Amino acid sequence: MPKNLISQLLDVNPSKRLTATEVTSHPWTLGSLDATAPNPTNVLDLMKDYAKEMKDCTNNGEVHDWHKKSN
């Protein structure tokens, strides 16, 4: 649903683009997510966790698989 909303907001044709009223009444904006859809992920929290892992990794001298270069 968020992709649908964003694509409608970015439509280059102003007559097809959503209005502010339509955005506020969109199901995703109202929190009416489909129960079968995956739960949204908080990207900021994921980035913070990743930064912490990177800091811990460099402080401990550990090298994880995702740090190794592939040949």
TrEMBL record:
Quote the Gene3D superfamilies the UniProt record gives: Transferase(Phosphotransferase) domain 1
Question: What's the protein called, per UniProt?
Answer: Uncharacterized protein
Species name: Clavelina lepadiformis (Light-bulb sea squirt)
